[in-house]
Amino acid sequence: MEYKILAEIAVEAKKLAYAPYSKFHVGAALLTADETVYRGANIENASYSLTVCAERTASFTAVLQGETKFKAIAVAGDLDDFITPCGACRQVLIELCGSELDVVLVNSSNEIKVIKLEELLPLSFGGDALREFQNNK
Ligand code: THU
After folding, report:
1. Distance (Å, whole) CA 55 – CA 71
2. For residue 43, how far is its CA from the centre of ligand 1 (angstroms)?
3. What share of the chain has pLDDT > 90, as a percent?
4. What is the CATH number of domain 3-135?
């Protein structure tokens, strides 16, 4: 699938957002290796810290369907500039989708910019470090 189309799905997914507090609607579209797309949107809570970002609702939905291989995630917000995933979502995406994931950033003019997750979260902490720790005990 062309990333432009994936971006359009992310823009459309913004409509699913539950964001009564920030009113900042974010949509995500996660593309698997076999070209299935899982949508996500941010879901807020009156207890603010319980809010879950669009990138995480999309990736959790995909994992719950048994998906393990991913190509790209598109993220759309109502910003003139390109929206970028928060730090927590970068960590979750690297765990579930891998550092090779393409992140397709979408601005409010529906222009896209593609960046590797590895570039957004270099030197990340992951399962390898824990496995090495366990093996050396
Ligand atoms: N948000 C996302 O869903 N994804 C991002 O990449 C940035 C922030 C949400 C969380 C919260 O509901 C709102 O945007 C304002 O932070």
Report:
1. 14
2. 9
3. 99
4. 3.40.140.10
Residue at 31: amino acid letter: L
Predicted TM-score of the model (pTM): 0.97
The CA-atom distances, in angstroms, between 64 and each of 5, 59, 67, 83 are 24, 9, 7, 26
Q: Is 111 exposed, middle or buried (0-12, 13-18, 19+ CB in 10 A)?
A: exposed
33 alpha carbon to ligand 1 midpoint, in Å? 26
Q: State the greatest distance between any 2 C-alpha atoms of the chain, in Å, as a whole number.
A: 53
Task: List residues near ligand 1 (CB under 6 A).
Answer: 19, 22, 24, 26, 42, 44, 51, 53-55, 75, 83, 85-86, 89
